[in-house]
Design brief:
The protein is of the alpha+beta class and about 325 residues long. The protein has two domains: about 5-165, no CATH class; about 185-330. It contains eleven helices and eleven strands.
């Protein structure tokens, strides 16, 4: 895999350049340069515009980093496409709406502005009210248009490499070595857990998510999710204070019970709640163990180990135990 341009050119600017390069085949003067890439570019534009009649589309202009917009594409029908490219990062500070406002202030009609979020790795929540272009979308399109273009083929191979890495959990069951062997496997595994309903969520972006946590052990990817609603936590007597959240979290090959603590909460109260929860899980879940107490914004109650043979059962067991605790535990 190392003999590939995009294995080394991993920055967002490199991907911006590829997006511009591919869409440039929809310029009128380049249409006959490579018919496959012309067709590929037009279909990709059609997805961005959510249109099926994309064959008549012609690119008039492509601008990179125009007023902080990653890629801005102008088409022959007067449409403008704002492409926000997040190779590995995520959107922040309402960027898309700011870019849309910039074009409106320049006189572009609101209904002629289309916004796209371009992401080649898994993310916990798709962006709302915007077209999301994913790695799966791109691989599907590229498979339809084979070409001898080296840059195009390098990019397609790079996406396949990421795809294989993300799906390695299906064949490599040695979870303890995932961090040292793969870059995207946790995103793939977490996506599988959410999309298949193995991890049951309320569907609200504030009730689950995943991210990377830097720590002394070399960092870890975690998936967290709320099993109990805010009302249920309040009925238990631990929310909305001193505990703001009681949730489960996958950390490497463990499922942990976690507490999110409100600032300036009484430590003895927190310690008491944590102890009650820990004792309940130790009594009701075989293999669950309480972890040492370390105060911070989040506290670990304890955790249980899982593997790729029993992870569905362990996750279900932990969710059900938390629901039972809501009814049986007196705090």
């Amino acid at each position: 895999m190392k003999n590939n341009l995009f294995y080394y050119a991993t920055s967002e600017l490199s991907q911006d350049a590829f997006i511009c390069y591919l869409l440039s085949f929809a310029f009128e003067k380049f249409m006959k340069t490579d018919k496959a890439l012309n067709n590929c570019a037009k279909e990709l534009l059609g997805i961005m515009l959510e249109r099926e009649d994309y064959n008549s589309l012609v690119v008039k202009d492509i601008k990179k980093q125009y007023k902080n917009i990653d890629v801005l594409v102008e088409l022959n029908d007067g449409s403008f496409i704002i492409i926000e490219d997040k190779t590995f990062g995520s959107q922040s500070n309402d960027q898309i709406n700011r870019y849309r406002k910039t074009l409106i202030e320049e006189g572009v009609p609101k209904d002629k502005i289309f916004c796209v979020y371009y992401k080649i790795v898994e993310q916990d929540h798709p962006e709302e009210n915007i077209v999301n272009i994913t790695r799966a979308d791109l691989l599907k399109i590229f498979a339809k248009y084979p070409s001898e273009n080296l840059i195009y083929n390098h990019y397609a191979e790079y996406l396949k490499y990421i795809d294989e890495d993300a799906n390695a959990f299906k064949s490599d069951f040695d979870i303890e070595n995932w961090r040292s062997k793969y870059s995207h496997v946790y995103g793939g595994f977490f996506t599988h857990l959410i999309n298949s309903g193995i991890v049951k969520t309320f569907g609200n972006k504030n009730d689950y998510g995943w991210h990377y946590v830097n720590n002394k052990r070399g960092g870890v990817w975690v998936l967290w999710w709320s099993v109990l609603s805010d009302v249920e936590l309040e009925n238990m007597g631990i929310g909305p204070g001193p505990i703001s959240k009681l949730y489960l979290q996958i950390e490497d090959n463990h499922v942990a019970v976690k507490l999110r603590v409100l600032e300036n909460s009484n430590r003895e109260t927190i310690k008491h709640i944590r102890s009650l929860l820990a004792n309940y899980f130790v009594e009701n879940v075989q293999g669950f163990f309480q972890t040492p107490l370390r105060y911070g914004k989040t506290l670990t109650v304890g955790r249980i180990q899982y593997d790729m043979d029993n992870y569905k059962n362990i996750i279900s067991l932990m969710e059900n135990t938390l629901k039972k605790a809501k009814k049986e535990l007196e705090i």
